[in-house]
Amino acid sequence: MGKISDRAKNMAESATLKMARLAGELKEQGKDIISLSLGEPDFNVPEYIKAAAKQAIDDNFSHYPPVPGYKDFREVICNKFKNENGLNYTPEQIVVSTGAKHSLMNIMLAVVNPGDEVVLPAPYWVSYIEMVKFAEGKPVIIDTSIETDFKITPEQLKGALSPKTKAFVFSNPCNPSGSSYTKEELSALVEVFKEHDCYIVSDEIYEYINFVEPNTSLGCFEEIKDRVITVNGVSKGFAMTGWRIGFIGAPLEVAKACAKVQGQFTSGANAIAQRASLVALRDKKDEVKKMRDVFLQRRDLLIELLSPIEGLKLNVPQGAFYLFPDVSGLLGKSANGKKINNVGELCEFLLEDCMVATTPGDAFGCPKNIRISYANSEEQLKEAAKRIKNSLGKLS
Ligand SMILES: Cc1ncc(COP(=O)(O)O)c(C=O)c1O
Fold it and tell me: Is the dihedral of CA 289, 320, 111, 234 positive or negative?
C-alpha cells in the first residue's frame, strides 16, 4: 500500500526549484553552469538591514512573535501601503508570514472552498495553480501571448469570471513575463471586477522592480478596494529571499482567517527577520532603487544580445527580472540526433549542450515559452547569451 497521500502525490514539484536543483547538482559535479533559472536577486542584503537584524538578536527578540506579526511592524506595513500604494489598511488587516509564498497559501486555504473557481491569467506564477488545487479549488486559466505583452483584456476577464469565481489571482509586475499593467489598463479591468463579487489577489512582490512607472496597486481603486487582498514582502525588492518575510493587507475577515490558519500551521514568522524587515521598509534607502536600475541595464543588455537569435521571439518586459521569449519556432527541430518536442526538452538541451539553466514555460501555463532570469552578473549574461546562440544554432 502506498503511504503517501494523494494530495502530496498529485502536487507538481515547483519547476523553478527543480531547475535550480538540477543546475546545483551539475555545479557540484564541477560543471561550469550559468544559472538563468533563478528567481532571486543576486545582490547582498543592504547593510542597514543586516545591522537591524544583529540589533534584534542583541535585544533578545527570541520569543514567539504574535501570530499575525509584531504590532509595530504591521503599523510600518500600513504606512508603506498608504504612502507608496494609496491603500488604507489598519494593522488588524495585516498578516505577516514566512514569505509571500506562505501568505498566498494562507489566502487559498482561507477563502477557497472545494469546487470554487479561481481565475488565473497565464502565464501565472508556478505555485498559484498548485495552491488552488491543494485547496480543492478549480483553476480557470486566461491565456495570453507575447503579442499582447502577456496581458489580459477586459473582455477576456469578463469571459472567465462567473458566479462560481471565488478569487482572481495575478502578479503585477508578473513572474514570469515581466509584464506590468499601467493604471489605465488596471482601470479597465476594474470596470469588469465591479460586476463580480469575488476576491482579487494582487501579488505585488516585484513592486520595486518596475521600469515604466511606479507600480499601481489594484486595491487603490475605490470601487473594488474592499475585496482586494494585497500581497507583498521583502524578498525581491530588498534582496532578502532567504529571510522569508511576506505580508498581506486584506479585508478584515480574510486577515483573521489567514491568521487562524497560520496559527495552527506555523505561528508568527521569524522574530529576527521581522525586526529587520520593519527597518527595511521604514528606513528604505537608495539601494532599492539602485538594484532596480541595475536590473534595467541587464534587461536591455540581454534583449540586445538575444534579439538577433533566430527562433527567440522577444518582447520588452516592463518589470521583474525575467525575459519570457516565445520559442515555438524551435520546437520540432533536432540537434545532436535528438528532436526537441517541447519547451521542457529545449531547456534540457540548453542545460546539457551549453550548461545554461532556464525554466520551461509550461509550468507557468505557457508551453511556447521559456523563462530566462537576468538576476545574474553582466559578465555571466554575456557568456550565457553567447552559449545560447551557439547551441540554438545547432538546431535544424
Ligand atoms: C510572483 C511571486 N509571488 C510570490 C513569490 C514568493 O515570494 P517569497 O520569497 O516572499 O515567498 C514569488 C517568488 O518567486 C513570486 O515570483
Answer: negative
